[in-house]
Amino acid sequence: MSAARFEVVIRAMDSPAARLVAFAIAYFLSAELGHLLTFAGPHESFATYWPPSGLYIAAMLAAKSIRSRLWLIGAALVANVASDCAAHDVPLLTSVGFWVANTVEALAALFAVRRYRLLTGPRLCVRDAGGLALTSIACTGPACAMVGGTVLWLSFGGSWIGTFREWWVSAAVGEIVFLPLWWELLNPQRQFRSYRWSRLPEGILAIATHSVLSLLIFHVGERPIAYMTVPCSLWLALRLGMRGSILGNVILSVIAIWCTANGEGPLGRIEPVAFRVIFIQTFNVTASLSTLILAAVVNERQQSLEERIESDERFRDLFDNVSDLVAVTDLRGKILFANAAWTQVLSPSAQVTRQYLVDWLNPDSREVLAHLLDHLPVAGVLTGIELQIATPDGSLLDVEGSFSCRSGVGRVDRIRIIFRDVTSRKVSAQRLEEAHRQLEAANQQLQLLAATDGLTTLANRRAFYERLSQACHASARQQRAVSLILLDVDHFKMYNDSFGHPAGDDALRTVGTILKEGSRDSDVVGRIGGEEFAVILPETDENEALFVAERLRRMIGGHRWPLRRVTASLGIATHHGGDPDPELLVEAADQALYQAKRSGRDQTVRAANRPTVVDATTS
């Protein structure tokens, strides 16, 4: 068969119609098994249990929609009628009544399981096993018996109480024995891949031993040995889990009922037959429930162990793959556990465990660690601890760590340490700090350049006027005088035309130098135009300003000029108290400067309505 045809066959077998047909066939065969295991008494027959109950309930639980459940109900009707009417000559109406009883039982079980949230996981747990037993005895069994017992009583007469009890117990036993089997097969969350196939030979041996032992026991007439199958049941529960236990329960119950119905085994000679049925039903319930609960306990412990192993694996994977340095030490700092990041940081051959943490630190960090270990038991947790680890190649690794020795049980004997490599962060911080310093220096340089005249290195026009405004405000605040000197180099254009612009620039630079040397530390000197200079004299009155101006004029005129003598004209303006206007002060000084030029240059003129002219002849 080709792969394509094989895939078509598999899809056809997995279709809803195929599953419905499989359910009907399984229901029919289960019903035949129930008829086969019926006890025949002198006056009436006794049904020990009804195997289709477990199949019907499991299929209804596994169905995902109301439509699917309606199809299951119809298939159950067809299979039930086929078994009762065609194979056992049961009247049609009676068979339909039996089907109604089984449907009521399945719907009641569906309601109870959903109401009490049973069978919610991939495996049967203790709560599921106990819950199914209680619901079968207290809910689904009586619901089925109310309908089935009434149908049986109306069809064949007899005692209604007797028929009710028979249906009640047989329905409950059928659920307890067969529902776990069918649920393991039909559970949508089943995990067949998780089965340990390496135990298959042991499973076959255990099932075979269980079957042979059951046959031997139920051919012997002594009643106490009926429970000698318990060791095999324990074997199945402990080694094969829930699936092996369920299969063992079904095999044991079929063999026990078959032999007892034929008068064999430890329960086969009990009279009357009704008592024999009660004894074998009791045996089936106790054997099945004890094995199921034991298997459920094993299941839960196995699941808990698997979850713990999985959790440990996840933790170990996280522990080994985290980039931080994680370690557990004793109270003296001896490393008990360390993740793989230590060997990546130190060296692949480095032996970290059983070494003392202090051995991996530089001298300064060792003192910090010793102090930390002394105080940690009291503090419990210390964070933000910066240390340096010395690597085998001689380099230092900057780390920031947290230390914790808190314990939920009150005993402190371990220290949990997490180190984070901050070397790159520190290097980046240092680089950032250096860049910040360079930026600040550059900003200062830019500010200086923005406020400085490029030729003379004096304050430029913008910076000078800012300082003048500040000086005027300070004068008003302190009620002190402030003076301003405006200076213009005489005949500078002629100097430029005669000796060239480079010589003119040299002359301006020399004038700037003379002004700086001749001014006081508190004065502000600036170049405000081509050959115009200015000096701010804080806290200086007219006489002091005139003295300073004359000293500057004489220094310029008396300098040894290489090409030709250079002189300057100066204007002075002073303001006393009040709120001075810088513009008015500049205007007054400028008028005084203009007067000095008109009066013959190389002289100083003071403004303020009392012009004092001082020229070269008076100096």
Please describe what this structure looks like.
The chain is α+β, with helices and mostly antiparallel strands and 619 residues long. It has 4 domains: 14-190, Arp2/3 complex 21 kDa subunit ARPC3 (Orthogonal Bundle), CATH 1.10.1760; 191-319, no CATH class; 322-421, PAS domain (Beta-Lactamase, 2-Layer Sandwich); 452-614, Alpha-Beta Plaits, CATH 3.30.70.270. 61% of the residues lie in helices and 12% in strands. The protein has 18 helices and 13 strands. It has helices at residues 3-13, 16-36, 52-62, 66-88, 92-115, 126-156, 160-186, 200-217, 230-261, 273-321, 341-345, 363-379, 423-451, 461-478, 492-499, 501-518, 542-557, 582-598; strands spanning 38-40, 45-47, 325-329, 335-338, 381-390, 396-404, 415-421, 482-489, 524-527, 532-538, 568-575, 604-606, 613-614. Strands 9-10-8-11-12-13 form a 6-stranded mixed sheet, with helices on both faces. Helix 18 (582-598) links the parallel strand 11 (568-575) and strand 12 (604-606). The protein is elongated, with a radius of gyration of 54 Å. The termini are far apart.
Q: How large, in whole angstroms, is the Cα Rg?
A: 54 Å
Flag low-confidence runs.
6-10, 609-619
The CATH topology of the largest domain: Arp2/3 complex 21 kDa subunit ARPC3
Measured between the Cα atoms of the first and last residue, the distance is 130 Å
- The assigned CATH architecture of the largest domain is Orthogonal Bundle
Helix proportion range: 55-70%
Q: Order of strands side by side in the largest beta sheet?
A: 9-10-8-11-12-13
Query: Which structural class do you get from the secondary structure elements?
Result: alpha+beta
Q: How does the overall form come out from the CA principal axes? A: elongated
